[in-house]
Every structure is written in C-alpha cells, then in structure tokens.
Amino acid sequence: ARPRRGHSGAGGSAGATIPRSATPCEKGIIGMASDGPTGEYHGIHPAHPKAGWEKLPWQECRPRASRVRVLEHTCECQDIVYELCQAGGLLFTRRHYRASDGTVVSESEWLRSVPARRLWTNILLGHIR
Fold it and tell me: Of 4, 14, 73, 115, which is the most buried if we count CB atoms within 10 A?
C-alpha cells in the first residue's frame, strides 16, 4: 500500500464545485471520504464516467524534473488513483492503475495552471478518463 499524502484543496478551482461528504469511503462517489468517527481524510472519489466521456491520451512517465509536488490526489481505496502534480512551473495529472500484476503509472500532458486544473476537474467530474 502506498502512503497517504497531505491534502491541499478540494479538487481544483476551474469553475466546478466538488461536493464533500463526511460519510465513510464508498467506491465511485465523488466527494471527501473519511474513516468513521475520527474523520481522517483519505481522498476525493472521482465520479463515474459520464455518457460521452473523452479518452485522455495518457503518456509514459518521463523524468522531466528532479522534484515533483503532489498538490491533490484521489482516494487510495480506488483501483485507479489520480494525482494533480506540479513540477518546473507546469502541472500535470499522474494516473496509477493498480492491476493484479502490478501498477502502471502514466501521466497527462504537462500544462499551464488553468488548463491543467480544468483537466483535473473534468477527471473528477467523470468527463475525461
């Protein structure tokens, strides 16, 4: 299991509001998930893909920067975990797909802040996968 990361926001600021709930983790529900009465945060759940969702051309990860900062991430309980990352003045989304034979890590195109946060929000809302 991967360690949990800190949280710095609620899923992007590109115009859409990501709803939050204080309910225990339920797969496929967008919003905040917590571990029972302690309320320990463990991630945002992306919505199920919407009708007509767009397929993102995921790319192989390449070492473009010596340091990458994870700004936001989705819930670790999911088979696919997304991370909004920042490096070298650009943002990108990293995808961790957990399969029975290992984890495949890929990333989106590296973008400026506004288009990258718009992409992040659309992933969370189920418009892009």
Answer: 73
Element (H, E) at 117: helix 113-124
What pTM was computed for the model? 0.71
Report d(CA 68, CA 81) in Å as an integer.
16
Q: Give the sign of the dihedral formed by CA 57, CA 59, CA 64, CA 65.
A: positive
Amino acid at 72: E
pLDDT per residue as tens digits for the range 4-30: 444 333 343 333 444 343 233 444 444
Two tokens, residue 68:
């990458």
Strands 40-44 and 32-35, by their bridges, are antiparallel
